Amino acid sequence: MTQTADTSKDLGKAPVTARTLSVQAQAGIEKQRAEARQEADKILDREAIAVIEETQRAIDAIAANTTSEALAALERASGKIDILLARNPSTALIPVSHEVVVFDTAPQDIQAIDKIGEAVDAVIASEDYPAARELLYGLMSELRVRTYHLPLATYPAALAEAARLLDQKKSDEARIVLMMALGTLLAIDQVTPLPLLVAREAIKQAEAQRDKDDKDKEITLALLDTARYELDRAMALGYWAQEPEYTTMKDEISNIQKQLKTNEDTSSFFSKLQDRLSAFTARLSKSKQSRHDESQPKQSQPEKRAA
């Protein structure tokens, strides 16, 4: 696990200001989640969705012993597949559904994160992978968009095989083939680290406070401490920890703090920092993080808040 230097005054402890940001940061996270849901909705393919629906109708019809209805559903699904193949000759995966979920299980304190990381290293060294998975679940702080895709390379053959089996009166075999086909939907995750969203909110509020009296200047400096801390926390949690942008942004925060203490104009520096962090967050969230063969979205764990 990546070990990250803690820049807060109380080593390993989140600045007090981080806790005062909770309401505003949560509002920002909810806004980001709504925007992610809208963007994910835009890419869903209605024909591909219809293929999945017709596959499920065929399975239900087989269970009800109505072979003619099952064959009709498969025929409709195959027709939709033909349309998809014609429209997307070079595209292997077509998006059919999505879920937008917030996982926020990680400790706030970086020292606590590092201790879990050390425990992960230890159990992996002893090849106790179930224990490692359980520990890693406690190191998540992210907004995750999981999109499920129809695999055009294999799905048509499964429909054809199911229809052939039904013609041969092999209903059970046909049903298994269709259920396995649904199980080949490919899930691709896109992840936005929550610490980056909290850092963005802290910088936004710091900029709003900067031109006020000396007391508010202290608040501004504390908010910038929080932003730096959240960048360190994102690194400690392993969210692209080797990216050089982290160092650049933390240096920019330190530079702004120095300028604030000497009453210099920091407007352009705040703007540059905000733009850099927004671009960095957007680039990371657009990265496809992982691929999983799954049939349906699953909801579990109390820490998981589905959209």
Report what the structure shows.
With 307 residues, the chain is α+β, with helices and mostly antiparallel strands. The chain has a domain of 116 residues. 62% of the residues lie in helices and 13% in strands. The chain contains twelve helices and five strands. It has a five-stranded antiparallel beta sheet. The longest helix is centred in the C-terminal third of the chain and has 23 residues. The chain is elongated, with a radius of gyration of 25 Å.
Characterize the overall form. Answer: elongated
Task: Specify the helix fraction band.
Answer: 55-70%
Strand content: 5-15%
Which structural category do the helix and sheet elements fall into? alpha+beta
- Count of strand segments: 5
Rg (C-alpha, Å): 25 Å
Across the major sheet, the strand order is: 4-3-2-1-5
What average pLDDT do the residues reach? 86
Report the sheet with the most strands, covering strand number, pairing sense and barrel closure: 5 strands, antiparallel
Order of helices and strands: HHHHEHHEHHEHHHHEE
Low-pLDDT stretches are 1-11, 295-307
Terminal-residue CA separation:
30 Å
Note the total helix count.
Answer: 12
Question: Which short descriptors sum up this protein?
Answer:
307 residues; alpha+beta; five-stranded antiparallel beta sheet; 12 helices; 13% strand
List the helices and strands and how they pair.
Blueprint (H helix, E strand, L loop, with lengths): L15 H5 L1 H22 L2 H18 L3 H21 L5 E12 L5 H16 L3 H9 L3 E11 L3 H13 L3 H12 L3 E8 H16 L4 H23 L8 H17 L5 H19 L2 E6 L10 E3 L1
Antiparallel strand pairs: 1-2, 1-5, 2-3, 3-4
